Amino acid sequence: MQLKRLKLTDFRNYAQATIDLFSGVHIFYGKNGAGKTNILEAVYYLALTKSFRTAQDRHLIRYHQQMFRVEGDLINDQGQAFHCAIAYALQQGKRLTVNGQRIERFTEYIGEIPVVLLHPADLMLSQGGPANRRRFLDVLLCQSSRIYLHHLAQYNRALKQRNQLLQSEAVDGATLEAWDVQLAEHGAELMQRRQAALQELSETVASLYAELSQSPAKVKLVYRSSVPGGGEASPKEAFLAGLSGHRAADLQLGYTSLGPHRDDVLFLINGKPFRTYASQGEHKTLIVALKLAEYQFLKKHVARQPILLFDDLFGELDAQRIAQMLTYLEKIGQVLVTTTSRNFFDKVNLNQLPVHSYRVAQGTVQLEATLHE
Questions:
Q1: Which of 157, 249, 347, 361 is at 20 to 30 A from 283, Cα to Cα?
Q2: 235-289 pLDDT, tens per residue?
Q3: Residues 6+ apart with CB under 8 A from 31
Q4: 8 A C-beta contact, residue 119 and residue 311
Q5: For position 355, what pLDDT does the model report?
Q6: Is the distance from CB of 82 to CB of 99 less than 8 angstroms?
Q7: Range of 70's domain?
């Protein structure tokens, strides 16, 4: 997958911007606050119909405006060209079109433009709370499986309804049981698909970590479910039994206390938690390995080459780890990198890859140089 042109209208600090893109590495440099991350956010939004920085679409609208628009001209791995546009207006909401045809159900679109994002918050995946790790799995699996995306949407709908019922003054038992069935049906699918994906990711991460670190340390990723095992019971039956057993507590709490929305991923090094036993350098190497594994997973399961978005790498990673990332990305397609450093090339050996440098300042983007093309 290759993005040939990105056009922004009233998006963040851009009134109008058209950016031509190519194969290889794209370096967007400029001062803090210039709008570099906004470019990556626009590509991410075009791919996933949501931002990685805010849950409120209205926050993406340029100051004093009523709407924004992001457009992309793309070529897929089969050489077919297509045009995507997504707009959001305060009064009309969100509108998505592909080649001029409106897409009513975003679930039919997500995954068409696979992306892998690495930004500073990702360095907390192995150290922060479980919500970030669940989101990592959800973004990965929503891009690679529309069945997963369907079950996630239905699960979240059922979870919202069940929680509202738990908070009501008079709880109807039959209605609660009906939502339990919905939660268990879709939640069991989510847990099974997460566990299968994590097993595959764990093997890839372990191999990549060993290569990157040149260390004998054994790395493993483990899915930790909040639903008690049911012996011979199916995942759906075990979930239903867990909901029944927690019903009194949930009624007191006013929310659902177990399920995929409460699950976690454990990162282990030599059988012990990364959070407790790993150094900062080991944490960073793990995240590099995890992102490379994410790239390989999407490339395999979507059968399209993901676009890579690297936000402010030098703020968190050293030049050696960045160079390692690029080295292990075989047949690299498109990479978009933001940095405050104009001397990016002095710090990282880009192995003769095509490199395009853009200066970002005050809502403008200008292509300044191209190397190795």
A1: 347
A2: 999 999 999 999 999 999 999 999 999 999 999 999 999 999 998 889 989 998 9
A3: 340, 361
A4: yes
A5: 83
A6: yes
A7: 1-114+308-373
- Give the span between the Cα atoms of 209 and 198, in whole angstroms: 15
Q: Return contacts of 122-128, CB within 8 angstroms, 24+ apart.
A: 122/287, 122/291, 123/283, 123/284, 123/287, 123/316, 125/267, 125/287, 125/290, 126/267, 126/274, 126/275, 126/278, 126/283, 126/286, 126/287, 127/274, 127/275, 127/283
CA atoms within 13 A on the CB side of 4: 11
The tokens describing 261, both together, are 């929305």
Q: Which amino acid is at 312?
A: D
Is residue 16 in some structural domain? Answer: yes
Separation CA 287–CA 211 (nearest Å): 14
Residue 261: how many CA atoms within 13 Å on its side-chain side? 18
Tally of structural domains, the chain: 1
CA distance 325 to 285: 10
User: Is 2 strand, coil or helix?
Assistant: strand
CATH number of the domain encompassing residue 331: 3.40.50.300
pLDDT at residue 325 greater than cutoff 80? no
Tell me which residue of 89, 86, 92 sits closest to 74, measured CA to CA.
Answer: 86
List pLDDT tens digits, range 72-124.
999 988 889 999 999 999 999 999 999 999 999 999 999 999 999 999 888 88
Would you say 161 and 177 are in contact if contact means Cβ atoms under 8 Å apart?
no
Query: Inter-axis angle of helices 173-213 and 235-245, to 10 degrees?
Result: 120
* Cα-based angle 79, 80, 82 (whole degrees, multiple of 5): 135
Q: Quick check: 77 and 1 in contact, CB under 8 A? A: yes
Q: Global pTM?
A: 0.92
Q: 166-179: b or e for each residue (b if 16 or more CB lie within 10 Å)?
A: beeeeeeeeebeeb
Residue position matching structure tokens 């239903």:
240
Decide if 125 is inside a domain: no
pLDDT at 332: 67
* Residue 127 lies inside a defined structural domain of this protein: no
Q: What is the pLDDT of residue 350?
A: 61
Q: Can you give the pLDDT at residue 347? A: 61
Mean pLDDT across the stretch 184-191?
Answer: 97
